[in-house]
Design goal:
This protein is of the alpha/beta class. The protein has one domain: Rossmann fold (3-Layer(aba) Sandwich). A 6-stranded mixed β-sheet has the order 2-1-3-4-5-6. Strand 1, helix 2 and strand 2 form a beta-alpha-beta unit. It is globular, with a radius of gyration of 19 Å. InterPro entries: GDSL, SGNH_hydro_sf, SGNH_plant_lipase-like. Keywords: Glycoprotein, Hydrolase, Signal. Belongs to the 'GDSL' lipolytic enzyme family. This is GDSL esterase/lipase.
């Protein structure tokens, strides 16, 4: 069964429930990587190598894989539903309508374009299916299906919500998995953040007046990185078990991104830009698991190869591969496949972005109520 057909069925069958308080967003447009991809990577069929488009992906909410890299919904799904909008169609979906928004996110996306990596000899270490700026080009190409004139487009986009990211995880991963030293990875931060800032400015130029710009989750807490980059004793958080220097990389990126957002706010006083936090909730899922209904345990993937490694993650038997199995109850795990989060985690994060405390300011703060 082709993923594009599944996506179309999902979009027709699962419209979000009405929000508790009416909102005035005309549409939502999302850009990002596998954290928010809802089917673009498999819109033309499932590649043989793509384990994330096989069961048990999608089992919790949809009952089958949809191209989302989770057991169910991702953050942008919860946001659309809370706003009373249908789930966003992937921008590459056939026979879809985009009058209430579109999702341009695609698994493997980077902030930076491929020439940046080629100039540094990293072209074989990064798999970018569409950078932020490529996705913005897709957005521009889709405009004739959304609105009929430049002025109509600007008016429509001014009443819409734009979510830009998270971006950066795959950029930094290119250097980490190429075995480059961590100080070299840190040198990418200004370029990655500058690229995100330029992307936001391009969308503002299109008429966007409400934007959400997420930071990165704590890289060192994810079973993939815990398995692939073991550290000597003493380099792990005493309470979290996460790799400290990899979490520092995410923290440095997020701090730089928040400084760039502050500059953008100064430069565009008529535009509202929200910083959305993936880092804090993910850390809380580890440190205060019971508070969110999760099991208190070492960071561990729900779906993986049981008995292979302390973190239930192994590259030779990833979730969706032969030999890998999902835990009995994904709702009590925060990590789905060791790289991405469970639907339960994304639901907590989305709520924190919408109402606080995981956003500055919350998407639906007092000025947007009623």
């Amino acid at each position: 069964m082709r993923c594009r057909l599944l996506v179309c069925l999902v979009l027709l069958a699962h419209a979000g429930p009405p929000a508790a308080v009416a909102r005035d967003y005309a549409a939502v447009f999302n850009f990002g990587d596998s954290l928010t991809d809802t089917g673009n990577l498999c819109a033309d069929g499932i590649p043989d190598y793509l384990a994330t488009a096989r069961p048990p992906y999608g089992a919790t909410y949809f009952g089958y894989p949809t191209g989302r890299v989770s057991d169910g919904r991702v953050v942008v799904d919860f946001i659309a539903q809370e706003l009373g909008l249908p789930l966003l169609p992937p921008s590459k979906a056939k026979n879809a309508t985009f009058h209430r928004g579109a999702n341009f996110a695609i698994t493997g996306a980077t902030s930076l374009d491929m020439p940046f990596f080629e100039a540094r000899g990293l072209e074989h270490a990064v798999w970018s299916s569409g950078s932020l700026h490529t996705q913005i080009k897709w957005f521009q190409d889709l405009k004739p299906k959304i609105c009929s004139s430049p002025q109509e487009c600007r008016d429509f986009f001014r009443r819409s919500l734009f979510i830009v990211g998270a971006f950066g995880g795959n950029d930094y991963g290119s250097t980490l998995f190429a075995s480059r030293p961590l100080p070299e990875v840190h040198t990418l931060v200004p370029d990655v953040v500058d690229s995100i800032g330029r992307g936001v400015e391009r969308l503002i130029a299109e008429g966007a007046a409400e934007l959400v710009v997420p930071g990165l989750p704590p890289t060192g807490c994810f079973p993939l990185y815990l398995s692939m980059f073991p550290r000597p004793p003493g380099m792990y958080g005493a309470r979290s078990g996460c790799i400290r220097d990899l979490n520092t990389l995410s923290w440095v990126h997020n701090a730089a991104l928040q400084r760039r957002i502050a500059q953008l706010r100064d430069e565009h006083p008529g535009v509202r830009i929200v910083y959305a936090d993936y880092y804090t909730p993910a850390i809380q899922f580890v440190l205060h698991a019971e508070r969110y209904g999760f099991l208190k345990q070492t960071p561990r993937a729900c779906c993986g190869a049981p008995g292979v490694g302390a973190y239930n993650f192994n590259l030779t038997a990833k979730c969706g591969d032969p030999g890998a199995y999902a835990c009995d109850d994904p709702s009590n795990h925060w990590s789905w496949d060791g790289i991405h989060l469970t639907e339960a985690s994304y639901g907590h994060i989305a709520k924190g972005w919408l109402y606080g405390p995981f956003a500055d300011p919350p998407i639906l703060d007092n000025k947007h109520l009623g």
